[in-house]
DNA sequence: CTCTCTTATGCTCAAGATGAGCATTAATCG
DNA sequence: CGATTAATGCTCATCTTGAGCATAAGAGAG
């Protein structure tokens, strides 16, 4: 390898993969292609075409045609192109490499009921189906305890010198009895489970059959490496809402503060302290009154507010970061 | 476009582009290929090869061979592949598209004096040569005032409905008399200057000759879209040091707290308040004493400290964010 | 051998931001 | 009408930040 100008190399298939996220009834959902019987659902993906002026335009144009929704927000996530991508990938063929440029897109809650979707070949899948352990809104302990004990076993099984490092990684990503985990580390947690062989993709990618006990409670696998791509999106989105007002892309024009909070909770997977959440939103000037009220609250009617678009990328870092409540205090 | 499995499309040349950053004598530098006489410097780039197991491994292996330095830290930056990428790109050829997967790499200060480099065809270029306006460590005003007035003119020249939006964008990215700008928005600033035609690449990419006044003070252009890639790296790195301890990848094994601060300042482009910076570092437990002292300080000798590697990805968010001092208070 | 200069290091203080509760208000549903 | 369900408002103790001041410990000049 030299520093000479790059030259074209071996055949590379490039596709654009979309992680389209919506929030439906406090559940974050992702657009997937329906699996055939027994198969795994896949993220929508399409080949990069010559007509596409920009990568993002390519992604945007065909997703919009598919979903009939305006994609409010689109950002490039990551480019996946490791040769180790599994052999059951139909696009690989003849020793070529497949490159997937993944994008994250957010759409407002319109026709996003789970199961229904704009195209009959697609469906909205709750993302916590893929990562049940990432939802700590109600009772976090069942999942955490199980995964931690499985991972502890993996740590103990490590070769001599690696034991401490593995144990420490588990502690950092999954927390321990005394400390919560960091919601943003969803990708690291998935990767750790993969390495530990606790998700079936690990065995499949190695050409083996996963042990059955592995499948229990390990979440729903997606095609190829799509669960990893989804985990990347979850991590990115959880980080992003802390400093950019992207939550509003997931909400209708007008909404109540509780709905905003529930959306934040759905994404981050933790329950938030209501008064503090409101204070945060208020002092940041992110929303303004519409003068209307929402009556269907089940209790006292709530003000309907709207996002102040003119503040969309204002100075410091608007967005919704807020304190988690102690466990169990969700509703 | 359908949701069918992706198929191989038109020829795509894929290369891995590296933004290798070091800090030399309080100056952030980037590794570039020396330009031919009159030409523009380019970032090192090499084609993606079939042997590369992972993209990052590919990037890492050949950069390490080139520089004889261990790349402490490598992360994927962004994939550039817009069709509008300029025509003087030697790798494009026959209507094919070029895809560049850019990586950010950090190396410790070893042989990184400006101008010297591991390979005679390469050089370390101060990144503020490309973005003089991004260095606000001493006196920010000369650049800011000039760019703001040029951009104000661009705003005023906008078609009727766009005027307000343009003016607002300028205000958000470049700040105004009363407010500083956000150091992380380096990429947005470059892109705004590009759109406004204030950097020569804008004219070149359009196949035109830039007006000479444009060139004055607009920084040093790089080959193709490499200045944009570098701006992406600057923004990413400035954001990253706030919540991950990556600064240490840019420092030798042991260092003084002032050197750590100067490195943070070099990257972020702003002068920091010394006592507060120390307090921050101390309370985060990022460093530990070595017991040794550094005598060459010019004043009272300073303790030599070292980064606590075991804390490298600890819970909340270690890293170096700190308050900027008011202007002019650098040294 | 002091005085001066330079940088290291420590301390204090006032604001602001955060984490956790408690109290009131206003609808709906039997 | 009383119970239930939310919406909204307020308070308080802690942390965290932004800024400035004071002292300590070397090198060099005179």
Automatic annotation (TrEMBL), chains A, B:
Superkingdom, natural source: Bacteria
Stored SUPFAM superfamilies: Nudix (SSF55811), Winged helix' DNA-binding domain (SSF46785)
NrtR DNA-binding winged helix domain boundaries: 248-307
Name of the protein in its database record: NrtR DNA-binding winged helix domain-containing protein
The organism of origin for this protein: Roseospira marina
């Amino acid at each position: 390898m030299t520093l000479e100008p790059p030259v074209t190399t071996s055949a590379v298939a490039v596709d654009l993969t979309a992680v389209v996220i919506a929030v439906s009834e406090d559940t974050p959902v992702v657009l997937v292609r329906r699996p055939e019987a027994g198969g795994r659902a896949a993220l929508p993906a399409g080949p990069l075409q010559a007509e596409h002026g920009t990568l993002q335009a390519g992604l945007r144009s065909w997703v919009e045609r598919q979903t009939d929704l305006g994609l409010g927000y689109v950002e490039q996530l990551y480019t996946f192109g490791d040769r180790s991508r599994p052999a059951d990938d139909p696009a690989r063929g003849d020793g070529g490499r497949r490159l997937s440029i993944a994008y994250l897109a957010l759409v407002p809650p319109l026709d996003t009921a789970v199961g229904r979707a704009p195209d009959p070949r697609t469906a909205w899948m709750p993302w916590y189906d893929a990562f049940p352990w990432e939802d700590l809104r109600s009772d976090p302990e069942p999942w955490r305890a199980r995964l931690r004990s499985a991972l502890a076993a993996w740590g103990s099984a490590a070769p001599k010198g690696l034991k401490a490092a593995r144990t420490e990684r588990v502690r950092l990503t999954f927390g321990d009895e005394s400390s919560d985990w960091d919601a943003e580390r969803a990708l690291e947690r998935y990767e750790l489970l993969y390495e530990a062989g606790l998700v079936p993709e690990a065995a499949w990618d190695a050409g083996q059959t996963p042990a059955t006990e592995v499948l229990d409670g390990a979440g729903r696998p997606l095609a190829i490496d799509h669960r990893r791509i989804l985990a990347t999106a979850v991590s990115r989105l959880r980080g992003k809402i802390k400093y950019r007002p992207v939550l509003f892309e997931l909400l209708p024009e007008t909404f109540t503060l509780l709905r905003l909070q529930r959306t934040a909770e759905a994404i981050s997977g933790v329950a938030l302290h209501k008064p503090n959440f409101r204070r945060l939103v208020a002092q940041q000037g992110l929303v303004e009154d519409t003068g209307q009220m929402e009556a269907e609250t089940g209790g006292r009617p709530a003000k309907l507010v709207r996002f102040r678009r003119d503040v969309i990328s204002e100075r410091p870092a608007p967005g919704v970061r807020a304190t988690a409540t102690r466990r169990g205090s969700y509703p």
